[in-house]
Amino acid sequence: MTPTARPVDVGSGRPTTDLPLLLADLHLAHLPGDVVGIRLDPVPDVGWTLERAGDLLVGAGFVPDTVSWWDTARVEAVATRIRSLPDTVAPDIRLLVVGLNPSPTSSDTAIGYCRGGNRFWPAVLEAGLASVDRDPRHALHRHGLGMTDLVRRTTSRADEVDSGEYRAGAERVERLVAWLRPRAVCFVGLGGWRTVVDRQAIAGVQDRTFGGRPVYLMPHTSGLNAHSRLTDLVEHLREAGRLANRG
DNA sequence: TCTTCATGGGAACCATTTTA
DNA sequence: TAAAATGGTTCCCATGAAGA
């Protein structure tokens, strides 16, 4: 497979921690199926490796075909833009929200939990973790609320994702957490955490950490989850926020 | 005739419980 | 440990009524 144009330079002279949002912008500038040549040219730091470069591409909604060193600091990759939702992450995150995988609506709008019946944004606003509805970047920059998913592949149903995909995705997200060190991590959806970490887990603060950071587990916010009311979800998010304040 | 709105039924969804 | 069954809310679409 060959890229459609000459490589796009991303992050020249910028810290590696700027790459997630820069790659998200690149994702939004392309269509699903586009094969893109990408040259990552940040100011290298001690953790700048091919694995991290690959993780960043995956997190931004690309499937890397090749990832290699262009020279001693720059990474060149060829990647396919998939129908997905890029990570909204940066340094100094207060609370990183980890979902299961993007819904078609979220991928098409580039806004996580965007679907009308999803209670995520109403609950986040009510809990005081964000102040602008359905604006992930405002939530990130103003409130330190980051967002990612275990699996980047878009499906209309969470049960279309198998356990192997969850585990592989969890390894990537754990590396992301260890790198960016948010004050706390909030897993949305019991199934993902139970698949990859603790089958017996219940909602609340978890015994074990994830990437070295404390974890709060809460039920899925989809309107199709009949077991959780909006008031319950608000309280879960407030608890997650309190955990982040202690972190 | 066209548009808007309300309604109803079936399908979809996910956490929990039960069963194998 | 995994798969199947369950329960109840929400979504989606078709249909019909009302108004312009």
N-to-C span: 45 Å
The major beta sheet can be summarized as: 5 strands, mixed
Strand pairing plus helix content: what structural class?
alpha/beta
Fraction of residues in helix: 25-40%
Uncertain residue segments? none
Q: What name does CATH use for the topology of the largest domain? A: Uracil-DNA Glycosylase, subunit E
Proportion of residues in extended strands: 15-25%
Report the top-level CATH class of the largest domain: Alpha Beta
Number of domain units: 2
What is Rg?
Answer: 17 Å
CATH superfamily name of the largest domain? Uracil-DNA glycosylase-like domain
The total beta strand count reads 9
Order of strands across the widest beta sheet?
Answer: 6-5-7-9-8
Q: Could you give the order of the helices and strands?
A: EHEHEEEHHHEHEHEEH
pLDDT averaged residue by residue: 83
What CATH architecture label of the largest domain applies?
3-Layer(aba) Sandwich
Q: Globular, elongated, flat, extended or rod-shaped: what is the shape?
A: globular
| Helical stretch tally | 8
